[in-house]
Design a protein that fits this description.
mainly alpha
Length: 446
């Protein structure tokens, strides 16, 4: 029994060799291939979902831990990898929706298995089943972990170790890459993260031929041993020598889990294509007769019917030739030809009638379009006449207004002229009266 603690989930080599998958008859090579395949799915889905590397690393560690307690023959790699990504995104506070995870894994499956990329309907029965299976597998993972999902990665130790050893900056990126690749193996469940970090630093230094202090040994300062570092380097070297991992169906049920429906459809189509070839020749007549009415479509239908009728007539003539003497053969042949000719003529007449009906419908549609165009032109003409009348009425109104304004202006002008005349006459009377009074005063003075 494997017990889980917050900082203690490490197995021995014997426990790994006696894993649940081995007990179900899965060999070491197949188990290694499926583990690498699942980690590849997690890494690729993390990139497509735009998740940080910490989420991907946590998902891969949870994936390895789950298969240390459960068999690959009972839980499919694809759905477990999707559930690990979904759970790790929540643990690392970068949550993603179940819909996004399912769509990404569906797209990856179509690409990896060279299937046509189809649209997964969110309201279909398949999507509802995938969502239920995803949440069910997540509950299985949490149950096996005892709801203890604490993970410590070697990445946080790498930068501190390299800064302490005063190594060149090129080693940091190389050691980081090796730490990411180490998560595809079982190193995360065999050694502590400090040992894995020391092994990654040692492998990166060997690649760039950077010497590390050995007197005293540098790994003792980081709580590691030489045997663990050598084992980490050996596992990484073996990982790089393996070919690209492919999916291997090992479920006991026999039906592999799929995110798409095309894989099952392709298998059924292949079986249906092979079925007519292996069927006995006795049932050819029934197959032909059943398939004939399914085909529809104009002149092609007539040709197919003619060919089928000829085949039937030839078979009937062969069967009757055995029971009837040779004298009757000559009499029956013209009857058979006449039937076939009549059928071809009737089919040709039907086709001609259909073509005529189509032409009539087209002419009717054209006439309707013409009538519509004419009615539109008439309406436009009526509108133009109405606009003309409106313009004329407005012009008349403008003329009347202009006349009224002119008459008012004339009246004003005439009033001003009369006033000026009255004023001039008054002035004249005033001047004349003043002149006469002056003359009288003069006469009086004299």
């Amino acid at each position: 029994m494997i017990y889980t603690a917050i900082d203690n989930f490490y197995l021995t080599d014997e426990q790994l060799q006696n894993s649940p998958s081995r007990k179900d008859g899965i060999d070491e090579a197949t188990e290694t291939t499926l583990r690498i395949y699942g980690c590849d799915l997690i890494q690729e889905s993390g990139i497509l979902l735009k998740l940080p590397q910490a989420v991907v690393a946590t998902g891969q560690v949870l994936f390895h831990r789950f298969y240390c307690k459960k068999s690959l023959a009972r839980f499919d790699v694809k759905i477990v990898a999707a559930s690990c990504v979904w759970l790790a995104s929540k643990l690392e506070e970068s949550p993603r929706r179940a819909k996004q995870v399912i769509l990404v894994f569906h797209r990856m499956e179509c690409r990896r298995e060279n299937l046509p990329i189809e649209h997964l309907d969110l309201f279909s029965k398949k999507f509802a089943e995938l969502k239920a299976e995803l949440s069910k597998t997540e509950r299985h993972i949490l149950k096996e972990m005892g709801f203890v999902c604490h993970v410590e990665h070697p990445h946080k130790f790498i930068s501190n170790y390299l800064a302490t050893l005063e190594t060149p900056p090129e080693l940091r990126q190389e050691a980081w890459n090796l730490a990411n690749d180490s998560l595809r193996t079982t190193l995360c469940v065999r050694f502590k993260s400090e040992v894995v970090a020391c092994g990654v630093v040692y492998a990166a230094a060997r690649r760039f031929q950077v010497p590390l202090p050995e007197n005293p040994p540098w790994w003792k300062a980081f709580d590691a041993d030489k045997s663990g570092i050598d084992e980490v380097c050996r596992v990484l070297a073996r990982l790089y020598s393996l070919p690209k991992a492919q999916y291997v169906p090992v479920l006991k049920d026999g039906k592999p889990f799929t995110f798409s429906t095309k894989s099952g459809d392709s298998q059924s189509q292949a079986i249906s294509r092979e079925a007519p070839v292996s069927s006995p020749p006795v049932n050819n007549d029934t197959n032909v007769s059943k398939s004939a009415p399914l085909e529809t479509g104009g002149p092609k239908e007539a040709k197919i019917k003619v060919a089928l009728d000829k085949l039937k007539d030839s078979k009937l003539s062969d069967d009757e030739s055995k029971s009837i003497p040779a004298d009757g053969e000559g009499r029956e042949e013209p009857r058979q030809k006449s039937k076939s000719e009549q059928r071809t003529e009737t089919s040709g007449d039907k086709i001609k009638e259909r073509d005529r009906e189509r032409d009539r419908e087209r002419e009717r549609d054209r006439e309707r379009d013409r009538d519509r165009v004419k009615s539109r032109d008439r309406d436009r003409g009526r509108d133009s006449d109405r606009e003309r009348d409106r313009d004329e009425i407005e012009r008349d109104r403008d003329k009347v207004k202009d006349r009224s304004h002119r008459s008012k202006d004339r009246g004003r002008d005439s009033g001003y002229s009369e006033k000026s005349r009255h004023q001039s006459s008054r002035d004249r009377d005033y001047h004349s009266s003043s002149y006469s009074s002056r003359e009288k005063d003069r006469y009086r003075h004299h």
